[in-house]
Design goal:
Blueprint: H1 5-13, H2 15-21, H3 26-54, H4 59-82, H5 94-120
């Protein structure tokens, strides 16, 4: 995503908003590119963490991890509701992203319910 960020922004937001999301000054562009780099590093770290958790056999740890993921998705939805919707260039997408965060959080809740059902059957 970092290498084709302009194309991704044009595809998702349109040409007008894509130019605004790239930054208007060189300092803004540098900050945005640095932020994109850190998001890519974070995505890699999360993927690596999920890969490591997949090999853990302890059900209690899986429940702990799933609860943490639910809290993370709820926090992200709250962030989008209170802050991201106020950014005028991202204002039309916040509702779709909040629904996506809630659905992802619910998927972890369903995992917890399923694991509790297995535990208490």
């Amino acid at each position: 995503m970092m290498f084709y960020s302009n194309e991704v922004f044009v595809l998702s937001h349109g040409k007008d908003h894509a130019s605004k999301l790239q930054g208007s000054t060189p300092r803004d562009e540098l900050l945005i590119r640095t932020s994109d780099s850190f998001s890519g590093l974070l995505l890699f770290a999360i993927g690596f963490l999920l890969f490591m958790v997949a090999f853990v056999k302890d059900r209690e740890f899986h429940s702990f991890f799933a609860r943490g993921c639910v809290l993370l998705h709820v926090a992200m939805a709250i962030w989008r509701i209170y802050f991201e919707r106020k950014v005028e260039d991202l204002g039309r997408d916040w509702l779709r992203l909040v629904v996506g965060d809630i659905v992802l959080g619910l998927s972890w809740v369903f995992f917890l319910v399923y694991s509790w059902r297995e535990k208490y059957d």
